[in-house]
From TrEMBL:
Coiled coil: none annotated. The keyword Transmembrane does not apply. Gene3D superfamilies: DNA methylase specificity domains. Residues 7-180, 224-388 form the Type I restriction modification DNA specificity domain. Keywords: DNA-binding, Restriction system. The lineage of its organism: Bacteria, Pseudomonadati, Bacteroidota, Flavobacteriia, Flavobacteriales. It comes from Cochleicola gelatinilyticus. This is Type I restriction modification DNA specificity domain-containing protein. GO terms for biological process: DNA restriction-modification system.
Amino acid sequence: MGEDTLPKGWVETELENLTSIKSGGTPSRSNKSYWQGSIPWIKISDIKSLYVDEATEFITEEGLNNSAARIFPKGTILFTIFATIGRIGILNIEATTNQAIAGLSPTTLINKMYLIYSLQKLADEIMGHGKGVAQKNINQTILKATKIPLPPRSEQDRIVAKVDALIAQVTVMQESLKRIPHLLKDFSQQVLTQAVTGKLTEEWREGKELGEWNYEVATQCCKKVQSGGTPRGGNFSNKGIPFFKVYNIVNQKISFDYKPQFVTEEIQNSQCKKSICFSGDVLMNIVGPPLNKVAIIPKRFKECNINQAITVFRPKDYLSNKFLYYFLREGSPVNMLVNETRGVVGQVNISLTQCREFVIPIPSEVEQQEIVRQVESLFSKADAIEQQYLSLKQKIDTLPQAILHKAFKGELVEQLASDGDARELLSEIEMLKSKSKTKKKPKTKSKKYAAGGDVVLGRVADGDLSYKKR
């Protein structure tokens, strides 16, 4: 934003004119006496929300004095300059940081939250100056030169109050939207449970002589229930017969785009003969977590195979593969076996034998068709709601930047003649800095840390409004 496009009474100035900017440092990891102390040491992963209340690592005073680390006071603005550029936080404790974080202590002549909102608005622009291949970094020179649009102090205060109120409304909307995916998931589960227990078609059955549902174990109602295996020596090919692994079951469908593997016809008809699969077969993973990943093999895969983490179910003619698919997706057979599962730590398995012993409900063929129809109809409605949710979420998530965009164009709050001119404010800030430079700076031999104490570092003091350093 150039001077000619600024709102009346505003001025554009470099960030370094409004705040001190210092970076942290990391004590040597090889010196154990520098670590496991009592001084909080903040890194990028500790900035999880606007206010930073705790650290996951701590350094000693010896580590502080023998590194570039410095103590930042409570209230310091944190701005990340390595890798994840532009993450912003406010220290709610006295702490040190690593060199990937810059600490900003603005003059009290400006509204601190106004500066934070400015940095949030400019974060992408600042990130664009990043250099590096594996990860983008910026240096203090780039950060200090960042141009900040500055209105008079009174207007800053009104802008912050308005942005605060609008962002609070956006947050309420975002929190409300968070419930929708859980509601949709619960709805889908209820549909499946009612489908396989007969409740979904209870009214539809009235007046129809359909008879009672039968119940059969999987080996009775399926022509085949079989898990697969991996070819000896990982003998895969670049083309041939598609070979599915658990990661190929995505969102309860087959997805063969990610890491596709194949076996030759020779392997298919020898080592993997027992687990040959065809389009229309139902697959379910038996190694997790998570379990309950289910898919029907699409028509485009006329013949394929599976590894030992998947079981194939090939239903007999009187059992619809789609009804079987929804029965397995419902998850009750697997959930009842959770306490009986076995496997290595972090892995949950069910056995082929247990799959073969699943008790499967068998409605009449006409009712199976009706169940599938109703389930797909309800799922289609749920999918439509999910798409509306995603579209709305995307729009709401862009609102904060839209609000900030209007704020820094001077369009969010009314401009008042009584506000004065920001050039006067900037002159006052520059005069304050000049005075502070003329003051004699006491020499210190070491940096001190006292939890809860009065640490002043590169900030404007509350009393005489001069910059002090410790």
